[in-house]
Amino acid sequence: MRLRAPTLALLLAGTCVVPAAAQRPEYVSPSGVKYFAQADTGAIARAESTLALAPRDVNRIIQLGLAQAAVRQYREAIETLTRGLALAPDNAPLHRERGHRYISVREFARALADLERGLRLDATDYGLWYHLGVVRYLRGEFGAAAAAFARARPMAPDDNELAGSTDWLWMSLSRAGRRSEAAAVLEKLRDSLQVPAGYAYVQRLRLYQGRLKPEELIGAADTADIQLATLAYGIGNWYLVAGDTARARTYFRRAVAGGGWPAFGFIAAEVELARLR
């Protein structure tokens, strides 16, 4: 059923603000821990107001979804993007953004369907390849993950993304047993990446290169929950690749001990702990 524009705007607005007492968890972990969205500081309301002026504008729908995701309202973002896809089913960015958010709430099959659909529509979209690699990796399909990251890497829009796609490519190749190819990826990485100090993916790459020791990776300044989960998973996976399952498990547990539940490192650590039972 096609919604009329005013009706769509009202529905979009009505899904974004949930009273704290009635707030639903965005994600419930395998151990029963409930994780919730953060407080909105006004970005969602502004995006809603902008969308209300042009309810069928796909770019404005995406911006609302991004505002919701920024405060970890991932299920609300999925609802927003789903309504966008009802208007524009062949819009690749909508599939990319919803696929990403399905990963956030651990619905990997739906994420895979969105990302593959998006790539059939636009095979030049870096984010689609990158997130396809992530979901393939989480599903244990390491060869397919490596293929996706190999496609994404040359399209990286900046050094942050280049570091990230290189990191995931190294991990995917290593987990697929293709150690020489993984080593070659590190050899080709240039030293002059323009990234923020302490950027987690660059720190992990230095670990893989032997330039940092595992105990040096997490410093006193690494207090943000996403950063901690990202670094801890990278160390755990490095130990796992080296065959040290006990230390790998220790770091995977550290990755999921904090509040960084949307981080890919947190999600991957959950998956690894389930595999290592």
Structure explained in plain terms:
The protein is an all-alpha fold and 277 residues long. It has three domains: 1-9 and 44-107, Tetratricopeptide repeat domain (Serine Threonine Protein Phosphatase 5, Tetratricopeptide repeat); 124-188, Alpha Horseshoe (Serine Threonine Protein Phosphatase 5, Tetratricopeptide repeat), CATH 1.25.40; 218-277, no CATH class. It is 65% helix and 1% strand. It contains 15 helices and two strands. The protein has helices at residues 5-14, 43-53, 58-70, 74-87, 92-104, 108-121, 126-138, 142-152, 159-175, 179-187, 200-209, 214-217, 225-241, 245-255, 264-275; strands at 27-28, 34-35. Strands 1-2 form a two-stranded antiparallel sheet. A hairpin with a 5-residue loop joins strand 1 and strand 2 (34-35). The radius of gyration is 19 Å and the shape is globular.
Keywords:
mainly alpha, Serine Threonine Protein Phosphatase 5, Tetratricopeptide repeat, single chain, 277 residues
